Amino acid sequence: MDWSQSLRLIAPEETLSIAGLVLLLVAAWGGDKASRLISILAVAALVAAMALVAPALCGGAMGPDTSAFFGQIHADAFSSYARILIYGAAAVSLVVAPAYFERFNSMRGEYPVLVIFAALGMGMMVSAGDLLTLYVGLEMNSLASYVLAAVLRNDGRSAEAGLKYFVLGALASGILLFGMSLTYGFTGTTSFAGIDAALSGGLSNGALFGIVFMLAGLAFKISAVPFHMWTPDVYEGAPTPVTTFFATAPKVAAMGLMMRVLFDAFGSQVAAWQQIVVFIALASIVVGALGAIGQTNIKRLMAYSSINNVGFILIGLAAATPAGGAGMLVYLAIYVMTSLAGFAAILSLKDADGNYVEEIAKLGGLSRTKPGLALALAIVMFSLAGIPPLFGFWGKFVVFQAAVQADMIALAAIGIAASVIGAFYYLKVVKVMYFDEATDVVQGESDVWHKLILVVTCLFISPFGYLLSGWLGKHAETAMTALLATL
């Protein structure tokens, strides 16, 4: 093995590791008063990491030359695609944080450091070529995330969210580890390539149980049914910038990891996991749609929306084809931008005293008091519902198309029917803003960074986003080809 080549391939991880350690020292010496400087430097480190991974995606890097440390890491176009989304979402989560935390006098230097280490772990997850790398990256992300959920120390809801996330996350990690142990025991290797080779001759009952337990652990990480129970409480209780982070970057990481595991490690046993993914997809779509109907808090509504959208994304995985995988990647990019727009809008909902407004009923008549903000939030809701001509429709279209091409017409039909149910609660928010009596609760001015992020992301998910559909689809297909090239 060429050590210099391996070290060059993990340059983004090295950058984030060094930046995290240095900023940790700055936080220790400078205290909370240096938190803004630390946030700026953390964003710079994440942007630098994005710049380092971009050439691999643009150049379509794949094959043995992208393998580092005896196949432990794959720095190919697939991992680069996912890492760009992860690092970008993490950077936005840092940009929107200061205005929120300073309202509570709780902006701390540890927050940017925790986000960097979580992003580092997520980058390892989508690059993993071995069960050990998978678990190290997963736990690095999880441990940082537990603290992030409870970072607002003077808020009981934040502490509760952190505790729930920790307890249930630890349970999911244990289930995943048990599945990994079974897989290792019945294949004799932790390498994805070795597992695939060992299972190509047939699937034993023990290895099948390993697949089931691993899928259960990964389903928790993407908040898929029936392992979704933590999502509404954590989304509502965690500080909104942290919820912004949870709704975007970890979703990409867990989805990318699930694709890596199922296509690379269990690619020869599609029939064993395909029916499980179909069930998880349909259950998530239905539970997400029905669970959101009675919600009165907009952050809880976004939580059920994420469960619903995870189901739609998994339809692409259930197709188990290159087109399905590429559709998933396109959907993920659109979903990340839509979620960032949604939470930027939520962070802009403030009353005259600067308190954040989360109750949907208090948004009555927002179109007359804050027409620009109401329009942005309406664009987000319509895009999440997949209503054309907004770009969110394209994400649903490509995964349904992949399912139809894979002769899974019933799955696509059920998904389309369920998306109509999901449109109800999105339209309810629009109805409150445009047709209800004005409550005049939302009167505060939003931060300039929140406005900028909202404008950029809304332009992306607007009909103008279709101008990027060819470019986005091309990179998604390149990433999927790179993933399959590791087999």
Automatic annotation (TrEMBL):
InterPro entries, A to Z:
NADH-Q_OxRdtase_suN/2, ND/Mrp_TM
Membrane topology, as annotated:
Multi-pass membrane protein
Q: Which GO terms describe its biological process?
A: ATP synthesis coupled electron transport
Catalytically driven reaction(s): a quinone + NADH + 5 H(+)(in) = a quinol + NAD(+) + 4 H(+)(out)
Which UniProt key words apply to this protein?
A: Cell membrane, Membrane, NAD, Oxidoreductase, Quinone, Translocase, Transmembrane, Transmembrane helix, Transport, Ubiquinone
This protein's source sits in the domain of life called Bacteria
Segments crossing the lipid bilayer: 15-31, 38-62, 82-101, 113-138, 165-186, 207-230, 275-295, 301-321, 328-349, 373-394, 406-428, 448-468
Q: Name one GO molecular function term.
A: NADH dehydrogenase (ubiquinone) activity
Query: Which residue range or ranges hold the NADH:quinone oxidoreductase/Mrp antiporter transmembrane domain?
Result: 128-422
Q: What class of enzyme is it?
A: translocase
Q: Which Pfam families has this protein been placed in?
A: Proton_antipo_M (PF00361)
Q: What is its EC number?
A: 7.1.1.-
Where does this polypeptide localize? Cell membrane; Endomembrane system; Membrane
Instruction: Name the GO cellular-component terms.
Output: endomembrane system; plasma membrane
Q: What does this protein do?
A: NDH-1 shuttles electrons from NADH, via FMN and iron-sulfur (Fe-S) centers, to quinones in the respiratory chain. The immediate electron acceptor for the enzyme in this species is believed to be ubiquinone. Couples the redox reaction to proton translocation (for every two electrons transferred, four hydrogen ions are translocated across the cytoplasmic membrane), and thus conserves the redox energy in a proton gradient.
PANTHER family in the record: NADH DEHYDROGENASE
Q: Which family does it belong to?
A: Belongs to the complex I subunit 2 family.
Assembly, in brief, is: NDH-1 is composed of 14 different subunits. Subunits NuoA, H, J, K, L, M, N constitute the membrane sector of the complex.
Q: What is this protein's name? A: NADH-quinone oxidoreductase subunit N
